[in-house]
Design brief:
Blueprint: E1 8-13, H1 16-27, E2 31-36, H2 56-61, E3 66-69, H3 77-86, E4 90-94, H4 107-113, E5 118-123, H5 138-144, H6 165-185, E6 193-197, H7 198-216, E7 234-238, E8 243-247, H8 251-261, H9 264-267, H10 275-278, H11 282-293, H12 298-307, E9 312-314, H13 318-323, H14 325-335
Parallel strand pairs: 1-2, 1-4, 2-3, 4-5, 5-6
Antiparallel strand pairs: 7-8, 8-9
Length: 337
């Protein structure tokens, strides 16, 4: 039983943002029904694919959900979907991204009959502004938000990873909004309607850098692979066997990281307490900690980091994920739904 196990959620349309939002509710115990057309959600065909042709992305975005197939050509399709929505607590709506043959429903009429229904809709740019109604992709959203420009080697072109990071970020914002509505209902309030813009959600990452550039003339530029202002170290590093992801955001995490590696002089330096300060000494710091990381395996550093409450994780291969009992069973359940 999860903390949200009393909630019923219906997810319609095809969108990484709404899929991830709904997945978070499912992770906390909600009963999430994903509505798909007979051909399935288009994300089921998104690479990377397993040897059986199943999408790893679809599995990630849809853990713990159930799928319901509704054929829009069926005479009772609208009635069936309307009944599902009227019997749920939360509707998560990705049709503005991709309607994916979802039957046409009258949300306004449904909410008039079901005043406690919480409704979240996602779109690329929201309902207002110069881009309202425009279509986009993860790549174009990242570019417009200034995120691609900041990632990659210091010299040469920026890098773009072919994934759904902007959708995941928007899904998190959507989850926060909808969860707040669920809490408000405990105090007797009616259901709320929310609209999440994937573009504006992504701007949350770069807006501080824009303010700095506007107010102080400090323009952020790429500083290299595994280097992300204002955190350092914060990236993926090689070990004796495997790779490990490390983040040292707070001074306490930095000190614990230095303790773990026996770098006591770095730990005690007042000039290196904050990430912004350490970014001024990247090469010097890397020369000391990177060779030490190669003295033990990723799994060994993971165990040591957990003892010290350092955000640290071994970087798994897809084959490693499938061998993991928890992830493997969840993925198989999701892929076969």
């Amino acid at each position: 039983m999860g903390v949200l196990s009393d909630l019923r959620v219906v997810e319609i349309g095809s969108s990484a943002a709404t899929s991830y939002c709904a997945r978070l509710f499912a992770d906390f115990g909600a009963d999430v029904q994903k509505v798909e057309p007979p051909a399935g959600d288009p994300i089921r065909r998104c690479a990377p694919l397993t040897p059986m042709g199943q999408s790893a992305w679809f599995a990630f975005l849809n853990f713990n959900k159930s799928s319901t197939i509704i054929d829009p050509a069926a005479p009772d399709a609208v009635t069936q979907l309307t009944a599902m929505i009227e019997n749920c607590d939360i509707l998560i709506d990705g049709r503005d991204i991709d309607p994916t043959n979802c039957p046409s429903i009258d949300i306004v009429a449904i909410r008039q009959r079901r005043s406690r229904l919480i409704h979240l809709e996602a779109s690329w740019f929201g309902r207002e502004g110069p881009y309202a109604g425009f279509a986009a992709t993860d790549a174009t959203i990242r570019a417009l938000a200034g995120l691609i420009k900041l990632v990659g080697p210091a010299e040469g072109p920026p890098l773009h990873a072919p994934d759904f990071q902007t959708g995941i970020l928007a899904g998190l914002w959507g989850f926060i909004a909808v969860a707040s509505s669920a809490v408000a209902q405990m105090e007797g309030q009616s259901g709320r309607s929310w609209s999440v813009s994937i573009f504006e959600s992504s701007l949350a990452i770069s807006e501080y850098l824009m303010f700095e550039a506007s107010a102080r003339g400090e323009v952020m530029r790429r500083i290299g692979i595994n280097r992300f202002w204002p955190v350092f170290p914060g990236g993926i590093y090689d070990t004796k066997s495997g790779w490990v992801g490390v983040t040292t955001f707070t001074p306490a995490q930095w000190r614990a990281f230095c303790d773990m590696l026996g770098l006591f002089e770095l730990r005690d330096s007042p000039a290196l307490s904050l990430g912004e300060e350490r970014l001024q000494h990247i090469e010097e710091i890397e020369r000391q900690f990177m060779p030490r990381l190669k003295t033990r395996t990723a799994q060994e550093w993971f165990a040591e980091g957990l003892k010290r409450k350092i955000p640290i994780v071994p970087v798994p291969d897809i084959s490693d994920l499938l061998l993991d009992k928890e992830k493997g069973s969840a993925a198989q359940s999701c892929l076969s739904s």
